[in-house]
Amino acid sequence: MNRKVAVAGVALSDVGRVDDKNAYELMAQASRRALAEAGLSPSDVDGLASTGQGTLPPTDVGEYLGLKPRWIDSTSVGGASWEVMLAHATDAIAAGHADVVLLTYGSTARTDLRKGLRTANINWGSRGPLQWDAPYGHTLISKYAMAARRHMYQYGTTIEQLAEVAVSARFNAKDNPEAYYRDPITIEDVASGPMIADPFTKLHCCIRSDGGAAAVLVAEDRVKDLKSDPVWVLGTGEATSHMLTSQWDDVTVGPASVTGPLAFSRAGLKPSDVDVAEIYDAFTYMLLLTMEDLGFCEKGEGGKFVESGALRLGGSLPTNTDGGGLSACHPGQRGLFLIVEAARQLRGQSGPRQVPDAKIACVSGTGGWFCSSGTVLLGSEEP
Q: Given this model, what pLDDT does residue 132 score?
């Protein structure tokens, strides 16, 4: 058995500031909406993928949602988890291990921070390999900042070029009613903000928000029963790189340099075929480097690429068309939100921020400090 697989339904929960729901309620809300969009019910779901919440994910999520799946996944590799689990779900459906798989996530990161239930900095602990990093006091942000500095030194990338990533994200967010921040910003606004980790000022870093997302994948024989247009999975790639920063061979090359070529090869496509991209952007450098690694520009040319306005709606490669994690929504692990926006773009459902005639979307998630990557190519036409 080698069935084709389609995304049948996608949805967000309430997002941004959500003070009246916990993470499970957000997952349930997004899941109900995604299933309804597909014209399916919880009884149709026989596969479940979820991570980031609970004691035994996805078991507790399944119990909360009233599901008893026969296929499960709880891969936890940071922000790339959702692209990786989509790849696993695609393989499972293709092989006949499941027919309808629900991917769901929810987080109240913003609310928890406001209530003092967590801090702004994630404590990764000091066990295992991290015992060798912990004494140096590296924060997550500082690891990205150090890597960005190396790219600036090696390739001449400027802080203004990195700032354009944030400015482009806000430009795209202006027409998204669900985006947390929509007011325009300038390069100067980014540069003049408070320093977080040199060279990153505040607006180089993702926002904190609440929210949930869900996507439903189905086998090709279920497509005829759907209420919505299918979005087809064309190719995927997954990889890990390192845990310790000292084991990162080259901080100007991320794991998308592996997952991108894999996904494009398996889909029979090339970067120039892509109409719209949804790329994880926890920090401006994350997106710039990933664009290079995926082959949208040459290594070291990411600065010039983003500086050209390529990422903006109307640019040569509209990217993070909802405003991304830098402006729209970033509750913790944004990977599933990328899939939702890509599916909406390929269905022509994005209103004033719609990319005209979008047929192919590239989705790429990054986990940790460039520790993992998952890349997915989606298409509006059946392969």
A: 86
Tokens, residue 294: 């995926």
- DSSP-derived pairing of the beta strands 231-240 and 372-379: antiparallel
Query: Which residues does 165 contact at the CB level (< 8 Å), separation at least 6?
Result: 204, 281, 284, 287, 288, 306, 311, 326
Predicted pLDDT of residue 114 = 79
Size of the chain in residues: 383
The number of distinct structural domains making up the chain is: 2
C-alpha 143/C-alpha 251 separation (Å) is 10
Under DSSP, the state recorded for 79 is B
- What is residue 358's three-state secondary structure? coil
Per-residue exposure over 264-285, b if at least 16 CB sit within 10 Å of its own CB, e if not: beebebebeebbbbbbbbbbbb
Q: How far is residue 132's CA from residue 134's CA, in Å, rounded to a whole number?
A: 6
Asked if residue 101 lies in contact with residue 71, where contact means CB atoms within 8 angstroms, the answer is yes
Answer yes or no: do 93 and 228 share one domain. yes
pLDDT at residue number 205: 97
Residue type, 281: D
Residues 262 and 367 in one domain: yes
The end-to-end CA distance of the chain, in Å, is 16
Q: How far apart are CA 314 and CA 353, in angstroms?
A: 9
Query: In this structure, are residues 256 and 301 in contact, taking their beta carbons and an 8 Å threshold?
Result: no
What is the domain-level CATH number for residue 164? 3.40.47.10
Give one DSSP letter per residue of 96-121, joined into a string.
Answer: TS-SEEEEEEEE-HHHHHHTTSS-SS
Sign of CA dihedral 287, 106, 9, 81: positive
The pLDDT of residue 55 is 85
d(CA 293, CA 302): 9
- Which residue ranges in the chain fall short of pLDDT 70? 117, 120-121
